[in-house]
Design a protein that fits this description.
The protein is of the alpha/beta class. It has helices at about 1-10, 40-45, 75-90, 125-140, 200-215, 230-235, 250-255, 265, and strands at about 65-70, 95-100, 110-115, 145-150, 155, 170-175, 190-195, 245-250, 255, 270-275. The protein has a single domain (about 1-5, about 65-275), classed as Spore Coat Polysaccharide Biosynthesis Protein SpsA, Chain A (Alpha-Beta Complex). The chain starts with a helix and ends with a strand.
Length: about 280
């Protein structure tokens, strides 16, 4: 049913969203931080674009209990209203921790709102707040065994994706080996599965460190471009290490990225639509 609804909507997200032009300020475009190009980033860190060997694993068709956490700024409230029922309607999705820059009373008891930030509609600041959200959620839940899905607020759940958790990983990532110019060969930092294992905590600690380096060097700090958060996420995910197990997800099988049309054959396994 949800897939049919999405097809009728022609994958326009959200269908009635009105964009109000505002002056966008890049807080990092200052004299002390030189904004550097994507090309110079790839030149300095060539492993970002380097393809890696991938073997996709097939999950067992078994539903697993899981939680979701996400960040939503006030200027994306319409996105929240568009996707939230698709998240809460999954019976074995037990709780959503939603970090925000404004306070409100959610209509569904599964949703826990954490008003953590001041209102700010800067895209680059909002992107960077992901790291604060991930750090807070991870520290708060440390030592608790649970399956967790991190989602950007423009992710629509078509079906229950929890069978991914039957596989062995610390963090499972989509689009890990993509080579498209549009994404600058980056993995998706706004949609990933994790288990709160020691390996997961090592992964995010490496991610936080590399993100800070990229930001200080001036990489990925342009508005509405690939951000330092996503570049650093990809860099760490492609790292050859035994400290954490990164599992590539076969995105073509379960995830539709962007406003692509889908036919009947491809839609039967579709579990998520990610509009970024």
């Amino acid at each position: 049913m949800k897939t049919e609804v999405l097809r009728r909507m022609n994958f326009k997200w959200p269908p009635d969203r009105k964009v109000v032009p505002t002056k966008r300020i890049n807080p990092y475009k200052r004299k002390e931080i030189q904004v550097r190009s994507d090309i110079s980033l790839i030149h300095e860190f060539p492993n970002l674009k380097k393809p890696i060997q991938i073997k996709y694993e097939i999950p067992k068709p078994e539903k697993q209990d899981f939680e979701i956490f996400a960040y939503c700024s006030k200027n994306y409230q319409d996105a929240y209203e568009f996707v939230i029922d698709s998240w809460t309607n999954i019976p074995n999705m037990k709780k959503i921790t939603l970090y925000t820059d404004w306070n409100f009373e959610p209509k569904n008891e599964k949703v826990i709102v954490k008003h953590m930030f001041e209102i700010n509609d800067s895209w680059i600041i909002g992107t960077g707040r992901r790291l604060d959200v991930i750090k807070h959620f991870s520290e708060t839940n440390k030592g608790i065994q649970k399956n967790v899905l991190f989602l950007d607020i423009d992710c629509f759940l078509v079906k229950d994706p929890s069978e991914i958790f039957t596989l062995d990983f610390d963090i499972a990532i989509s689009r890990l080996n993509n080579q498209s110019d549009y994404t600058k060969s980056t993995a998706t930092a706004g949609l990933w599965f994790c288990k709160l294992t020691p390996g997961y905590y090592k992964f995010i600690n490496d991610w936080f460190k590399v993100a800070q380096v990229f930001k200080e060097k001036g990489f990925g700090i342009k508005n509405h471009r690939i951000s330092y958060v996503q570049y650093s996420f990809t860099y760490v995910a492609k790292k050859q290490t035994l400290d954490y197990k990164v599992l590539p997800i076969n995105v073509e099988a379960i995830i539709n990225h962007g406003n692509k049309n889908i036919d009947d054959d491809s839609s039967k396994n579709l579990k998520l639509v990610f509009f970024s």
